[in-house]
Design a protein that fits this description.
heterodimer; A: alpha+beta; HU Protein, Chain A; three-stranded antiparallel beta sheet; two-stranded antiparallel ribbon; 3 helices; elongated; B: alpha+beta; two-stranded antiparallel sheet
Chain lengths: 91, 97
């Protein structure tokens, strides 16, 4: 499923105009994006939580050429699946 | 401060022009559709944000590192998240002033 299919499914389930459903879905993921770019956590009960993990930079090597390269430090969001979702997805 | 459903509901109430009760209902519905999709084994791709992927894990032999006891881990189905390159870039650049 992609975002436009999610918008359609929401519009149908809640009897919303497509435009409104689009604004809702964009707000949901836009809010999460904004929080994460500010370095904040996201916590949605039953679904999961996101937090930013910091990875230190390190000196690596290109395994093919042996060349030394500096890998810069980076931040990545880490998603922890919520209990309800975890249980529902598992077989 | 972490972002919660309450804050998202508040933003929808202010920006989309739905009542407070409706705002709550549609947000709950978005997450319910997402959960149903993943539950059915289908992935969810939100372009510019990331991808929620359902992965099948095979059964394997594991070990409790604390007691060193051997144990059998059954086959499982789990959800993993892959951040989109667009979001990844935004996070590393920090918020726009």
């Amino acid at each position: 499923m992609n975002k436009s299919q999610l918008i359609e499914a929401l519009a149908k389930a809640e009897d919303l105009a497509l435009k409104k459903a689009e604004e809702v879905v964009n707000t949901v993921f836009g809010d999460m994006e904004k929080a994460l770019t500010r370095g904040e956590r996201v916590e949605i009960r039953g679904f999961g939580s996101f937090k930013i993990k910091h990875y230190e930079g390190y000196q690596g090597r290109n395994p093919k050429t042996g060349e030394i390269i500096n890998v810069a430090s980076k931040k990545l969001p880490f998603f922890k699946v919520g209990k309800e979702l975890k249980d529902r997805v598992d077989i | 401060m972490s972002l919660t459903k309450e804050k998202i509901i508040e933003d929808i109430y202010h920006n989309v022009g739905l009542s407070k009760a409706q705002s709550r209902k549609v947000v709950e519905r978005v997450f319910e559709i997402v959960k149903q999709t993943l539950e059915s084994g289908e992935n969810l791709l939100i372009s510019g944000f990331g991808k929620f992927i359902v992965r099948e894990k095979a059964a394997r032999r594991g070990r409790n590192p604390q007691t060193t006891e051997d144990l059998q881990l059954r086959a499982r189905r789990v959800v993993v998240f892959r951040t989109s390159n667009v979001l990844r870039k935004k996070i590393n650049e920090g918020p726009k002033s």
